[in-house]
Amino acid sequence: MAKKEKKKKLIEKLKNRYRLIIYNDSTYQTAWSIKLTRLKVFTFFGIGGLLLILFTILMIAYTPIREFIPGYPSSEVRQLIVHNAVLVDSLEEQLQIRDNYFDKIRILIEGDVPQDPDFVTDTAIPPNNLQINYYNHDSVFKQKILEEQLNLSIQKENPQSRNIANIHFFVPLKGMITNKFDVQSDHRAVDVVGLPNSRISAVLDGTVIFAGWTAETGYVIYLQHENDLVSVYKHNAELLKDVGDQVKAGEAIAIMGNTGELTTGPHLHFELWNRGIAIDPEKYIDF
User: Fold this and answer.
1) φ and ψ of 231, to 5 deg
2) For a FRET experiment, which of 96, 121, 127, 277 has its CA 20 to 30 Å from that of 265?
């Protein structure tokens, strides 16, 4: 009963009428008056507060006023963020394409065939008349795919690019030839035996395009030279240069060794390629 009486008194207080009067301070005449109840006052201020909150939210959401809020980026900053996000996404895609391309080039140089059927479409290489054939490791550059697609030349062809007889080659290893160049037996190289731990020298100025390990031929290094020439040095004990290094003729690039499954003893397996065709090194180099 006491709780009901208190609740009834509270409701009556909310409904009690009051008059708000504004007097003229000089004449004490009533300038303005209004009848109020506590319930009306609470209702008025509650609705007014909600309208004020709603108005503030709309102003922040749909007008430039929001840019004056601390920590909120301006329109220029937001445009720059979106632009940078697009650039980063494009850069990641281009880096992935580049990495895939380099991986497939590395596989080709090591004597394998890429398993990815999208090898051409994933890269910037034009797919005109592309033919991927199987080839053995000792004739990596004899296939047309490497001649046309890898494009290992470092300068444009000139009238003397095919005339290599006038080029002075530095001897890669002074020693005795134990296995000569023979196309019929598919040995497109010369095997040279020298003193233990002999240094292997670059035959011409050039750039290292591959330097690494292969299961069949051990430590291998490829050099790209002018006039569409590529020299190959296999079965090394140690490589002294990395991919991208610039070398001079006669500069040490490796140490003679006996690495790889196909080796028959410590020697240098030396190949010389011109425009994707293997040539007999003995015709140009006095070992």
Assistant:
1) -110, 145
2) 277
In this predicted structure, what is the pLDDT of residue 170? 95
Low-confidence residues in the chain, pLDDT < 50: 117-130, 132-161
Distance between CA 106 and CA 110 in Å, rounded?
A: 6
For Cα atoms 92, 96, 99, give the angle at the middle one, nearest 5 degrees.
Answer: 135
**What are the residues facing 231 on neighbouring strands?**
223, 272
| Three-class secondary structure assignment of the chain | CHHHHHHHHHHHHHHCEEEEEEECCCCCCEEEEEEEEHHHHHHHHHHHHHHHHHHHHHHHHHCHHHHHCCCCCCHHHHHHHHHHHHHHHHHHHHHHHHHHHHHHHHHHHCCCCCCCCCCCCCCCCCCCCCCCCCCCHHHCCCCHHHHHHHCCCCCCCCCCCCCCCCCCCCCCCCCEEEECCECCCCECCEEEECCCCCEEECCCCEEEEEEEEECCCEEEEEEEECCCEEEEEEEEEEECCCCCCEECCCCEEEEEECCCCCCCCCEEEEEEEECCEEECHHHCCCC
Rounded CA-CA distance 131/147 in Å is 11
Per DSSP bridges, beta strands 17-23 and 30-37 are antiparallel
Looking at residue 88, what is its pLDDT?
87
Q: What is the pLDDT of residue 71?
A: 66
What is the per-residue pLDDT for 106?
Answer: 79
pTM of the full structure: 0.47
Nearest to 178 by CA among 188, 187, 191, 166: 191
102: CB partners within 8 A, 6+ apart:
none
